[in-house]
TrEMBL record:
SUPFAM superfamilies: YbaB-like
Keyword DNA-binding applies: yes
The name this protein goes by in its record: DNA-binding protein
Any one Gene Ontology molecular-function term assigned to this protein's record: DNA binding
UniProt keyword annotations, A-Z: DNA-binding
InterPro entries per UniProt: YbaB-like_sf, YbaB/EbfC
Length: 155
């Protein structure tokens, strides 16, 4: 491979990296605003999580105990939370899919650069920015030890 071909590959990879960084900022804005709600117990228990699956809110219908036993409540909250977390993970993966596909495509279309370890590592680090975090998110607005942080009961 001559220098012109290598230079062309480097230019293409850098252009792709710049696009990735610009798109990443937009995606992170969408991610920050993203939430997912799931329900259980015939819709009487609703749980909302953020993009990372962190619990944002829990709602329990005031008529819940008319149809279900109190001992079932924890199971229903857990069921709704798990479903909301699964849906949030799917949404997050879909949000980041174009970036991940572009980075994979860019690296595979530049075989001459793959032989340059330092450059490959540097570009790989840039593309790592485009991957979603898993299981880690911003802390909730209300402290976990807040004794007045009760689930919402709606009527």
């Amino acid at each position: 491979m001559d220098n012109d071909e290598l230079r062309h590959e480097v230019d293409q990879l850098l252009a792709t990296a710049q696009e990735q960084i610009a798109d990443l900022a937009k995606i992170q804005e969408k991610q920050a605003a993203m939430s997912t709600t799931a329900s259980a117990a015939d819709g009487m228990v609703k749980v909302t999580v953020d993009a990372h699956g962190n619990l944002v809110s829990t709602e329990i219908d005031e008529d819940y105990l008319d149809d279900f036993e109190f001992t079932e409540l924890a199971e229903h909250v857990t069921e709704a939370a798990r479903e909301a977390t699964r849906e949030a993970a799917t949404k997050l993966a879909e949000l980041f899919a174009p970036l991940n596909e572009r980075s994979t495509s860019a690296m595979s279309s530049a075989p001459g650069i793959a032989d340059i370890p330092d450059f490959t590592a540097m570009i790989g680090q840039l593309f790592e920015l485009a991957k979603p975090e898993t299981g880690v998110g911003a802390p909730n607005d209300v402290a976990d030890d807040d004794p007045f942080n009760f689930p919402k009961v709606r009527g």
